[in-house]
Amino acid sequence: MSRTDLGANEFNFGLRDPLWAQRELLSRTPLFSRLSKAGLDEFLGASRVVECPAEETLFQAGSVIREAYVLISGTVKRTTTLSGELEKVIELAQGQQVLSLGEVFAASSYASSCQAITPCVLVAVDVRKLRAVTRQDRDLGWQIIQALAQRQQAIEFDVSGYHYCMTGTQRLLDYLVELAGERPGLAGETTVTLKTSKKMIAARLGMSPETFSRSLRLLSESGVIVVEGRHVHIQNAALLNTEQGNKRQLVSFPRKPKYSAAKAEGAISPGALINLCGRQRVLSQRMA
């Protein structure tokens, strides 16, 4: 943080308090925001601010876990190595969170590697202090349980999607909705920004860059999204399954049986027609 980013009083206070940066950054993260001042002070002497440039490695698989990294800003990727030295992207993290949370509390060494994709700001917390305070503070323990449960739920849906032959288009749509952070409304649009390359996102979703581009194009042609560079505008009304008339059911892109391909060729469903008309209206408004 520079002086231009702070008010004069905050800057002067920061000079008097050498731990001001850690306190300010940690208190704004979802996991630590509910801690009392005394509870937050427990971490300050056992933490440090880390400014990580793009492409720098934070930790590697097999390294001993000595610090837990709290991501404040920026984007990182977590990877694992499969047989044949093939690198698999298991997570693209770009929200405020503790990186590799499960490993931090359940292992003595990292099972994954982590590298910054963009310049990042993090707070590194001594892992022994984090574990000790978590045992004593019920609120913090509950926050961590919720975070781990959400991660577990995401993994289960991710795995089930592969096992039940979820199409690349459906996986991409689910990823964009998850990136939006909240369930879309019935009208308007929700904008998400792709902060990493399309190749990196494709690797995370388990598809080739070519499949990613086709899936993105299909979503666009279906009127579900409008793409402007790195900005993707999710059309909330088109996102709903109008064909079923269910206001809560999101539109889906299931894998179609081969025998029905010839029959479906040239046909368009009422729901798809409504979505396409809505997309044309949105595009005309943008061009006006």
Query: Please, how many domains?
Result: 2
CATH architect. name of the largest domain = Sandwich
What is the C-alpha radius of gyration, as a whole number of Å?
Answer: 22 Å
The amount of beta strand, in percent, is 15-25%
Task: Give the overall average pLDDT.
Answer: 77
What is the structural class?
Answer: alpha+beta
Report the strand count. 11
Q: What's the oligomerization state?
A: single chain
Q: What does this molecule look like?
A:
- The protein has 288 residues and is an alpha+beta fold.
- It folds into 2 domains: 3-162, Jelly Rolls; 165-287, Arc Repressor Mutant, subunit A.
- It has helices at residues 8-16, 20-26, 37-44, 101-106, 127-136, 138-163, 168-180, 198-204, 209-221, 236-239, 261-264, 270-287, and strands at 47-52, 57-59, 67-73, 76-82, 86-93, 97-98, 113-116, 120-126, 189-193, 225-228, 231-235.
- A 4-stranded antiparallel β-sheet has the order 1-8-3-6. Strands 2-7-4-5 form a 4-stranded antiparallel β-sheet.
- Helix 5 crosses helix 6 (138-163), helix 7 (168-180) packs across helix 9 (209-221) and helix 8 packs across helix 9.
- It is globular and about 55 Å long.
- The model is unreliable at 1-16, 242-248 and 257-265 (pLDDT under 50).
